[in-house]
Specification:
Layout lengths: L5 E3 L2 E5 L2 H17 L12 H12 L4 E6 L5 E9 L9 E8 L8 H16 L3 E7 L3 H9 L3 E12 L2 E11 L19
Parallel strand pairs: 5-6
Antiparallel strand pairs: 1-2, 2-3, 3-4, 4-5, 6-8, 7-8
Helix pairs in contact: 1-2
Length: 192
């Protein structure tokens, strides 16, 4: 298992524990579903569904939480998911990060990605992508800060709250693509 215990500015980044963290992660995610177009889900998952999502992700990919040293609460989270389902896409992942409203603007999203991206590189992934429903200047700034660049925009691709929304796609190569790439290592098999 990879090492997860980075402490910076009173925040510790660690692998998520679905049993321990699902409620807090659900509480952080719910406003993005119920009050914004940051997520195109229309019904926020409950803690049980979120725990299931976390377990499914952790079978192959990282799901990290940022834990605040002052109160032990989950300040934010970031995870990777498959970019697409077809076999030829298996060296590419999509990433997402969500922060507690009280913890935004403190560099926590950057710290999460600063742990997530190297883990993905160690697993053998080549490309990292993020879809950002527009407008979302904070998310755009975060993804640009970690080295992603705008690849394109899906115009009016998602419909929510009575309006069509564009989604900007950001991406970066985290390793050079090679002929005959090695299969990505599932997270539980990643050496420490």
């Amino acid at each position: 298992m990879p090492h997860h215990g980075l402490v910076t500015n009173a925040i510790r980044i660690r692998l998520a524990d679905p049993d321990r963290d699902a409620e807090a992660v659900t509480a952080i995610y719910r406003p993005s579903v119920e009050h914004s177009a940051a997520s195109f889900e229309e019904v926020a998952p409950d803690a049980g569904e979120m725990a299931d999502r976390m377990r499914r992700t952790l079978r192959r990919l990282p799901w990290l939480v940022a834990v605040a040293a002052d109160d032990g609460g989950v300040a934010g989270y970031a995870y990777a998911g498959p970019h697409r389902e077809r076999a030829g896409y298996r060296w590419s992942v999509d990433v997402s990060a969500y922060l507690s409203p009280l913890r935004r603007g403190q560099g926590i999203g950057r710290r999460l990605y600063d742990e997530l991206v190297p883990m993905l590189r160690r697993q053998g992934f080549i490309n990292v992508y993020a879809g950002i429903a527009l407008p979302n200047p904070a998310s755009v700034a975060l993804h640009e800060a970690v080295g992603m660049r705008l690849i394109g925009v899906y115009e009016r691709v998602g419909y929510k709250f009575g309006a069509w929304h564009d989604v900007a796609w950001y991406g970066m190569q985290i390793m050079p693509p090679i002929d005959r790439p090695v299969e990505p290592i599932p997270l539980p098999e990643l050496p420490a």
